[in-house]
Amino acid sequence: MDTFPALLVALLCACFAVHVGARYLRNRALSHAFWAGSLGIAATASLAYCIALWLVPHSSWWFKLYYLFGALWMPAVMGLGSLTLVWRRSVVLWVATAVAVVGFIGSVLLVVSPLSIGALQTLHGGAGTG
């Protein structure tokens, strides 16, 4: 089970989140806030994936956390940062509210969904593609 790439991603995303977050504190650009948040979410997702694989038997809770942050929230929050470059702030905040509501529903559904422990045990540090 090779978790080195996921650990590297977690470290790099955390470093970039701090850097972009510092830029947000300097210039208060909403795009930087969303991007820093999405990088922090990505770092959390990568770390959760590592923890899911380190625990034996592999933890379905940590894997769901990885999927929740890495697949559901990170792309949505990063996309909101990009929308701030082309849309007015008020429109982006309405879209962010909609994303939060739909994301909350998706989060609940993901957390309560069943997970095949057998499939989880065969990951071995891979992407789960077989």
Task: Give the SSE layout.
Layout: H1 4-27, H2 30-54, H3 60-83, H4 89-112, H5 117-121
Helix pairs in contact: 1-2, 2-3, 3-4
Explain briefly what this protein structure is.
This protein is mostly helical and about 130 residues long. Helices cover about 80% and strands about 0% of the residues.
Describe this structure in words.
The protein has one domain (about 5-120). It has about 130 residues and is an all-alpha fold. The protein contains five helices and no strands. The radius of gyration is 16 Å and the shape is flat. The chain has helices at about 5-25, 30-55, 60-85, 90-110, 115-120.
Estimate the strand proportion: under 5%
**H/E series, N to C?**
HHHHH
- Helix-strand makeup class: mainly alpha
- Counting DSSP H or I runs of 4 or more residues, the number of helices is 5
